[in-house]
Amino acid sequence: MLRSLLDRGAIGLITTHDLALTAIADELAPRAVNVHFEDWFEGNEMRFDYRAKPGRVTRSNALALMKAVGLEVGS
To answer: DSSP strand E in 22-69: where?
Structure first.
């Protein structure tokens, strides 16, 4: 789908929580690139810096997010 959109001249942003999908941008380079925001928790609230940084995100916040909403998860 992304390849088809790019072939038609589309521009935009695609977001995902699936880190494996970030490989698609490598296959579509230089027409697509990975960027990420930094995030952290303050108490039970997730915060973002909203500054696009080059490359894939380097860590997952999934466990911290699940804990923040009250789910019991392992470390």
So the answer is: 35-36, 39-42, 45-48, 53-54
Residue pair 56/24 in contact (Cβ under 8 Å)? The answer is: no
The length of the chain is: 75
Domain that holds residue 30: 2-68
**Is residue 58 included in any domain, yes or no?**
yes
d(CA 25, CA 20): 11
Tally the domains of the chain: 1
Q: Which two tokens stand for residue 33?
A: 């690139």
For residue range 7-26, what is the model confidence (pLDDT) as tens digits? 999 999 998 878 888 899 99
Q: What percent of the chain has pLDDT over 70?
A: 99
- The reported pTM is 0.71
